[in-house]
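Render this sequence as a predicted structure.
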Amino acid sequence: MKEAIMKRFRDVIAEAKEISTEKIGIKGWIRMKCMYGCSFYGKSRSCPPYTPEIGTCKKIISEYNRALILKFRTNERKTLEKLMLDIERFLFLSGYYKAFAFFVSPCSACSVCTPEKCKQPERARPTAEAFGIDLIATAKKSGMKMDVFNSSKNFLPIGIVLVE
């Protein structure tokens, strides 16, 4: 699976790791950072409070055994959204019918988001942070070298896709 993803998306994925979902750290403080500090809170369908509560998030992720954690070569938001949807679809068509991608940043499909009545629900995905996923800790547990992001120039975003 990882090899097929790397082959198909080699131009935009710098690194990929297949991990057990037991390595995914889900923490309440991640959602708290969404609530207190992110300008998208309450303004995007992919962000709290429009995403499931932490307990539900943990339950959903426990229904999967594996995930792919991906480090990208680009940090362009719209490109990453399309890429995550393309990866999810590729996995689905490869027989992983439960594949579910998380967006790397809040959804930007519409110029003005109406989260209560999403205009493009087929294109909307929650962010990993909206699910309480600590991407940095998860990447480190999987063996990826990760640093705290201090500059958008050096920022190589990471994404995660649940796979079964």
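Summary. DSSP finds five helices and four strands in the chain. The chain has one domain: 2-163.
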